[in-house]
Amino acid sequence: MHANEYCHVSTSQILGGVEMIDAQFTDTVFGKHAHDGFVISVVDAGVMHFSHRGESHNALPGQLSIVAPDELHTGSKGRGEGWRYRAMYPSKERMMALNQSLFGVEHIPHFRQSVISDARLSQQMRMLLKKLSHGAEALDIEVHWEMLLVNLLLQESQQTSIRHFNKAQSNIESVRDLLSDCYQQKLSLEVIAQQAGINKFHLIKEFKRCYQLTPHQYQIQQRLNHARAQLKRGFSAVDIALNCGFHDQSHFTKAFVSAMGITPTAYQKQFFTR
């Protein structure tokens, strides 16, 4: 981590273990990565530059940004001295359940914009974060969290009809599920292509079209998701590298820093030094 940078990670037990980040970065560059849950962030200072859904974006102070599960994105400073931001990571299941209760469809919500300029939503998120940091009563925090998510869905989500998949799309989904279930295994492209019932080239092309990642890159993201969970449980970096299918601890650390901006050890310490 560069000078004048910090990244404080925490969880809110009041909100069911939702992970939160309060960070400042100047020269750190986040490579392409994805998360297993949603990322809702607000920029407090500077400019956050990131690519998402094939386009480049700049989030300014007060603006929100939203990235859905498994969506590939990057991160770096837009200009000047860097950026300071805070983020919350609601689970895919939480957002799907809320989407079901609001619109009667249980699928992953799709948000129209990567960057949201809405003073009311920004104020709601900042107020929620303030209440969390100041130890407000649980009920007060829960109400603000619920209303933030509800208003985001009502104002910014795009409700589409449930997709009907053809056989090829279903096969690509089965490959995604295989990579998720067997994240720690070293699968060959031949085995994966057999699972999909298509040739290797077509598999790579279609998988990347659907998920903006190659099958290997997707598997690495699944390994990192499981690695974060194991770090919170106190596993050592050496054991996690072995458990999650990384070649060694060095490869694990490099992939983790590229996605999170801090080392696995620094990330873990923030859960065991309070």
UniProtKB/TrEMBL annotation:
Q: Is Transcription tagged as a keyword?
A: yes
Q: Which InterPro entries match?
A: AraC-bd (IPR003313), AraC_XylS_family_regulators (IPR050204), Homeodomain-like_sf (IPR009057), HTH-like (IPR037923), HTH_AraC (IPR018060), Tscrpt_reg_AraC-type_HTH (IPR020449)
Question: Which spans of this chain does the record mark as coiled coil?
Answer: none
What keywords are annotated for this sequence in UniProt? Activator, DNA-binding, Transcription, Transcription regulation
Record carries keyword Transcription: yes
Which Pfam family is one of those matched by this entry? AraC_binding
What SMART domains does UniProt report for this protein, alphabetically? HTH_ARAC
Q: Which GO terms describe its molecular function?
A: DNA-binding transcription factor activity; sequence-specific DNA binding
Every copy of the HTH araC/xylS-type domain together lies at 173-270
Q: Which domain of life is it from?
A: Bacteria
Q: What is this protein called?
A: AraC family transcriptional regulator
